[in-house]
């Protein structure tokens, strides 16, 4: 969906590779895991990362 407001991709470069041992906080989110990075949650989606919400609290 090109105009899906919930599908926001991480625009900037993302040289860091998230993994189970990378040290970032993780949470279960449906059928995948999000990583907390720089104040928000995001998850890998193919070749890019999608923003999955603010890490409030
Ligand atoms: Zn990480
Ligand atoms: Zn997610
Ligand atoms: Zn990240
Ligand atoms: Zn995506």
Element layout with pairings:
Elements: E1 8-9, E2 26-29, E3 32-37, E4 40-45, E5 48-54
Structure description:
By secondary structure, the chain is mainly β. The chain has a domain at 21-57. Helices cover 0% and strands 44% of the residues. The protein has no helices and five strands. The protein has strands at residues 8-9, 26-29, 32-37, 40-45, 48-54. It has a five-stranded antiparallel β-sheet, with no helix packed on it. The radius of gyration is 11 Å and the shape is globular. It starts with 7 loop residues before the first strand and ends with a strand. The structure holds zinc ion (ZN) (4 copies). One zinc ion is lined by residues 14, 16, 18, 35, 37, 42, 49.
Q: H/E element string? A: EEEEE
Mean pLDDT comes to 86
Distinct bound molecules: zinc ion
Main-sheet strand order equals: 1-5-4-3-2
Percent of residues in helices comes to: under 10%
Large-scale geometry: globular
User: For the terminal residues, how far apart are their CA atoms?
Assistant: 30 Å
Which strand-content bin applies to the residues? 35-45%
Low-confidence stretches: none
Number of strands: 5
User: Number of helical segments?
Assistant: 0
Q: Radius of gyration, Cα only, in angstroms?
A: 11 Å
Could you say which structural class the secondary elements and strand pairing correspond to? mainly beta
Characterize the main sheet.
Answer: 5 strands, antiparallel
């Amino acid at each position: 969906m090109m105009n899906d407001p919930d599908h926001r991709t991480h625009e900037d470069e993302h040289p860091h590779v998230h993994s189970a041992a990378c040290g970032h906080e993780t949470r279960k989110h449906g059928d995948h895991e999000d990583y907390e990075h720089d104040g928000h949650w995001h998850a890998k989606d193919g070749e890019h990362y999608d923003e999955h919400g603010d890490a409030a609290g």
